């Protein structure tokens, strides 16, 4: 299946370079371009791409606002396209704003061509992708917010660390299964009985921990000795039960809840 991509950037030269990078991949195809936020909204509605590669700073409407409107005003049945924000600026304010607007990923323009292509594939598959240089700062920033503001359940670091230590010992499929149950139990003890994480099963808690560590569906499937389809189903169920939109929000919740030890 070919992933259809819409390019949004106010610089024609940048769009041309991105088109070359993307179109040379057999599974990726650029179906259109836009030079500003308003044009991006219209092109997305008309072309219905799978992924929108969105610049942030553009004249008129910003990429963040265009992303918000694409997500909120999608005129067709089904879900709107995934948005991968691509920018020169490695600034936290852009990351936070883009994720709040509904973006599924954030990459820098100095990323390698293969990294960009992989990010498009990951986002198209329904997963989240953040540039490595911003991931830890993003998690740390949200973890530093007051618990009442984030809405995370209460947790104790000591018990959460115990759960993470058990999970870290899972090397083989069988060990991963056993570690998942034990890690989930410890995580459940840490979160108490009244938080949103209490809606999850033991195995779902374990999957959430792996998601928060940045593992892809393929890596989680290998760790748990299950199929990728099984993992995707579990992740979707986790997001639904917790009322979250994407894996980034799930990772933030897991870190704020204390499911992982401080890194």
UniProtKB/TrEMBL annotation:
Residues of the region (Disordered) are 172-197
User: Domain of life, per the record?
Assistant: Bacteria
Using the record's annotation, list all stretches that form the Response regulatory domain: 4-124
Every HTH luxR-type domain range: 193-258
Q: Which residues carry this modification: 4-aspartylphosphate?
A: 55
SMART domains recorded? HTH_LUXR, REC
Q: Which Pfam families does its entry note?
A: GerE (PF00196), Response_reg (PF00072)
Q: Which keywords appear in this protein's UniProt record, sorted alphabetically?
A: DNA-binding, Phosphoprotein, Transcription, Transcription regulation
Q: Which residues form a coiled coil?
A: none
Q: Does the keyword Signal apply?
A: no
InterPro entries xrefs: CheY-like_superfamily (IPR011006), NreC/VraR/RcsB-like_REC (IPR058245), Sig_transdc_resp-reg_C-effctor (IPR016032), Sig_transdc_resp-reg_receiver (IPR001789), Tscrpt_reg_LuxR_C (IPR000792), WalR-like (IPR039420)
Show the Gene3D superfamilies listed in the entry.
Answer: 3.40.50.2300
Q: Where is the composition biased (Low complexity)?
A: 173-187
Q: Name one GO biological process term.
A: phosphorelay signal transduction system
Molecular function, one GO term: DNA binding
Q: What is this protein called?
A: Response regulator transcription factor
Taxonomy of origin reads: Bacteria, Bacillati, Actinomycetota, Actinomycetes, Streptosporangiales
């Amino acid at each position: 299946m070919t992933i259809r991509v819409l390019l949004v950037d106010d610089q024609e030269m940048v769009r041309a370079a991105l088109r070359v990078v993307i179109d040379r991949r057999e599974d990726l195809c650029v179906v259109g371009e836009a030079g500003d936020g308003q044009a991006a909204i219209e092109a997305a509605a008309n072309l219905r791409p799978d992924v929108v590669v969105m610049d942030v700073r553009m004249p008129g409407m910003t990429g963040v606002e265009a992303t918000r409107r694409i997500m909120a005003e999608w005129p067709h049945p089904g879900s709107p396209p995934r948005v991968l924000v691509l920018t020169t600026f490695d600034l936290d304010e852009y990351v936070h704003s883009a994720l709040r607007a509904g973006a599924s990923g954030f990459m820098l323009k100095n990323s390698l061509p293969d990294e960009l292509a992989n990010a498009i594939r990951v986002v198209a598959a329904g997963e989240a992708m953040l540039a490595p240089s911003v991931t830890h700062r993003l998690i740390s920033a949200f973890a530093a917010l007051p618990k009442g503001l984030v809405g995370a359940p209460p947790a104790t670091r000591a018990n959460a660390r115990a759960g993470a230590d058990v999970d870290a010992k899972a090397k083989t499929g069988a060990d991963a299964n056993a570690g998942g149950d034990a890690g989930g139990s410890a995580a459940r003890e840490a979160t108490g009985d009244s938080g949103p994480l209490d809606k999850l099963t033991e195995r779902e808690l374990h999957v959430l921990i792996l998601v928060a560590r940045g593992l892809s569906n393929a890596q989680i499937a290998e760790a748990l000795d299950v199929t990728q389809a099984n993992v995707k189903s579990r992740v979707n169920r986790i997001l639904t039960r917790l009322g979250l939109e994407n894996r980034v929000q799930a990772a933030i919740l897991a870190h704020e809840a204390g499911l992982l030890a401080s890194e």
